[in-house]
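Contributing: when you submit paired examples, paste them exactly as shown. First protein:
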Amino acid sequence: MEWIRGERIGHGSFGTVDIARMRNFDNCSVMAVKSCAYSHSSSLANEKEILDVLKDCPQIIQSFGDCYSFENNEKLYNVLLEYATGGDLGDKVKNSSSGKLSEFEVQRCTKSILQGIYSIHENGFVHCDIKLQNVLLFSSKFGGNNSIKIADFGLAKRARKLNSGCELRGTPMYMSPEMVAGGEQEAPADIWALGCMVVEMLTGAPAWKCRRETDFGGLFMRIGVGEEVPEIPKELSEDGKDFLGKCFVKDPRSRWTAEMLLRHPFLANDDLNCQVTSTSPRSAFDFPDWVSEQSSQMTVLPSPECSSKHGSFDEFDNFESFSTWPAIRLNELVTDQKTPNWSVFDSWVTVRS
């Protein structure tokens, strides 16, 4: 496959995203190419493999292959992706006239995102970083009627798969209670993050009121301990409030699944684009008996010098360990000595949408 690297549209600690201009390629001539050094390519290669599995879902960004290249005396690993002409959903909310979306727009966006999440979960994966910035917008030329697609699977993992301890991964503002308190990140964590997205689309502000760079300790205590959940917008319809209530269930075993939420009245305005045929629970009382997999230890992310949002956690050996007992774990998370550097999750900088 012949392609030419064009202008840069984003970059992070270990990689870049550039325009790729294609030669003799069916359907489109402009794509995005996500590149990183070969020595740090395991996470990007894993992302490409997951996208290959999810290629039949129109709400997931499509990969058009991968390759290696030698540029400036360095071997690079490249993954070719659809180019999102409309930017990301965070930009859409921020640039709207009121700084937020109407309830109808939120319903439409939420349904498409849920269809994508449903496909991710049905294929045995957890995205682990569902947020507005990882939902891309496409024109009809690229996306047809499915103009909203989930992207950035750099942190995605196989469901119920544990590595050497549970990894603390994701974006703090969207983290679920079980992630903060016990290092557990399975399909229900994506649903909690979806609820945070819905609140942010409706209000134009994060679901949790928190000084972004300085108050993560207090945020973790609110998320991981007690019964507090994000405030549900008062102006939202009763169906919308009930929908969010099903997302913000503290116990992940009782939180509604993607399939259940797709059948919720809040999303009745649009026809489903993805067929829902599995045997997932139909109500909050129909969950199978299962026990969440826990590990005796979890790991904290390395500093930005060692990793980025797209870095592979398996590549690093010198993580600090934490007890998974919630009180001890949370106490360690908020101390100065062991506070993770969360700036790693915002390391990708959008240069041009």
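Second protein:
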Amino acid sequence: MESDNRTIKYAPELDNALVAIEHTGSISGREISSRRERQLLEQIGKVLEPLNNHEGDTRIDLWFTAERGSITDWETYEEAAEYEGVTSQEDYQKTWLEYYPEEVKFYRFTYFRHEKFIAVFLGEDGCIESREEIIEETYNGWNDLTPLLEWTLEQSMKAMQQIISGKYDGYIKENLPFYYRTGTIPRWELWQIIPSRRAFDLAGWDDDILTDEEICTFQHMVEEHKNFRDEDFIIENMTAAQFFAYCRIGYEGNHIPHCQQFADDVELYKRLADGRDDGLTKIDLNSAEEFSRWMSGELKEFNGGHPWEVLRGGNSTHVNLYVGPYDEVGTGKYYLYLAGLHRPGEVIRFYIALRQHNIMVDLADKDELLARCLATDKVGIVPNGTFPRYCENLFPGEKVIDFKNIYASEDYYTAVVEKTSWQELKLPKLSSDFLTVKELLQFVDMATLVEKEIAENEEISDKEEVYTLWQTFLRKMSDYPCQESKNVLIFTNTWDGFGDEVEEYVDVSLYEWSALRKYAESSLQKILQPQDSLKKMSAGELKEYYKRLYDNVPTGFAFEFSPWQEILGYKVNIGNLRRQGLQDCIYAVLTEMTFNGMTEESQGERRQELDTSIKAFEEIEKLSLEEQKKHFRSFDDFCKEKGWQDERSPEEKVAKDKRIWLCNAITGNEKIHEIQQICSLINDK
């Protein structure tokens, strides 16, 4: 299947792709059909792997963003006139801003994996799934999903870079619109902000709102209800005729006009109830025996199992008047149970009418219904894209039964946001304090890497060539074998040079895990001096401080000659990365890895040269001291040979010595601080 070769950049393009999924997929989602699409899903999972905190199945939730772009990235004026009905430039601008009120649009993203099954959910409607690896390509008749999945991979990478850098949480908390958040607002506050909301909450049949008198009566009955005993609800020798008569009482209590149109209770019930009565309307209406046999299932004609749905509605918007056996079926003892939490006006009037006719009936959720009438409860604000029903699980520890979405375009939006108590956002957490170097290299920002490389090497200026060179190397490393290791890389800020030519950069050294563990107990006892204090010390004091600082500190090693598979297995600490800067740390690692070139051949040649030099040095060490002197020279002799003379004044020498030891002390502080941070993790574990 050929790709349409389009890339997704702006929110309108993304929204069009998501609409296409909704229109061309099944109810569950859109099934992929190409190996490339499956590979992209696998790559997304690989990038997100450091967030996998679940045992068994994987589920990761993130927020992605897309810029809205310019108005023509949405639609041209001609397209808007045809599809949106705009008639002027002003209308064109207004309609665009109604679709995209903010410069950046957020998209909820979920990655799910169970064994070979992978699914991604994007936005409010986009679901892409893959049940297994794709072996043979199949054409599905529509444009492929590659552009959308490539955008998703790019966003996954961007989010992971932010998470590792410690910037993701702050960005989401500060910028995620409130219409994508969860919170609660007192109902009485909502009524004040949106006056029409009270009528909506207390509406009955035909939008007939509960009166203050009815609410007062209901409140009295709820209080009275608390004193009833279970046996007070017993109804003996129940018949179908009694049940239908109870229904009429409730219908009349709701002032339903059908009551005048249908004199027969059964016909009235058939007009207003669900209709799937399982044959209840067909038995002998006045026979308690037949009602008992019907209750036991003997006379039932199953056609849906909704005989008690006396006011039909949706899954949560109907009224039920149940008849239940008081103890066991067949004893002739029953009770009435009324329920209709999301039809408050009707169910409350139904209850009042039955009680006023001295018919004992239990009422589900009576306290919640009363709190709704008195506006003493809370309404749950749930994220757009979440249907505002069955959201109780979003409010653990709270009793919230009513839910609402809010929209930025509504006049009341700002007032609702201010009066709502918002939950803390649930944001992803890294599953470990450490990454391997191989995992770390996934999160290279190529633009930053190219800029750093050009800045470090003035003779290089071709960005495209540098980009290609590094991209090739990083792809090689992504497929390179990785040797497991416990050893740790530690990054520190380092100062090099003096005076106006001091260069600050991130350096990296390798530390053996065993040495760090050994040092862990004593490391936290070292007291590091702040830079202001260091600057006030003399050169001698700085020299002594530096010596004390490094007492018993594990040795850090360069690793430019280490095999790549070994380097890829080294650990890096997340906190260390955040303090020193993710991309700076990545560049430090890559500099070490490629110090001897970007190919195995160049690496091998340099290692061979090193091995040869080491062997030569070992042979020299076997000679007598007199013979060794022929091979070694002192630094003073080297300076004389070069003609270098120290013409500085004593004051200049002292000043330079101080700068040297100040630089060493500051760098040492940085290094010990990072070692201490990692050692504290070792102690914790």
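If you have annotations for the second protein, write them as plain sentences, like these:
The longest strand covers residues 104-114.
DSSP finds 30 helices and 18 strands in the chain.
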